[in-house]
User: Fold this.
Amino acid sequence: MTTILGLSGSLRRGSYNTALLRAARELAPDGVELEIGSIAGIPLYDGDLESEQGLPAAVTELKEKIVAADGLLLVTPEYNNSLPGVFKNAIDWLSRPPKDIPRVFGNKPVALIGATPGAGGTRFSQTAWLPVLRTLGVHAWFGKQLYVAHAGQVFDAEGKLVDEKVRKHLGDLVAGFAAFVRS
Assistant:
């Protein structure tokens, strides 16, 4: 069984990115378990807090889920043509202490997807993640790209992916990433 951990970079209950992650889990091929993790409960990074109290429990738990997973799927919103601060903050905590970066992220297969209500999709956000991924030493997968635009038209009121073209593309992407992870 290949295990992929998916993380949505949004905390909003009705998040399109969380809905996209749930759809990816539904479309995962046989032999692939797509587990949904969460960045909820991770405080703003504060070096004093880290020095005085160590890593928060939410960070430690998520780090171990990343370590246990065969691959990592980052589902990123796009805020002001860049990556969301709450998602970057979570990754900053997950990279602490720096000596843990190779254990948590080193050569970990990682893919990026995202959804936004805007017309441009999440191209800028996904591009903004590239220097971060390079710094973490992951093995980024660029076999397929998915920048969901006009997300309000792609998901129904319950957050179900209803656009068949996006659904097909997402299914192909998850299958391609899973093959990459297995290789």
User: Anything to note?
Assistant: Residues 2-182 form a domain with the Rossmann fold fold (CATH 3.40.50.360).
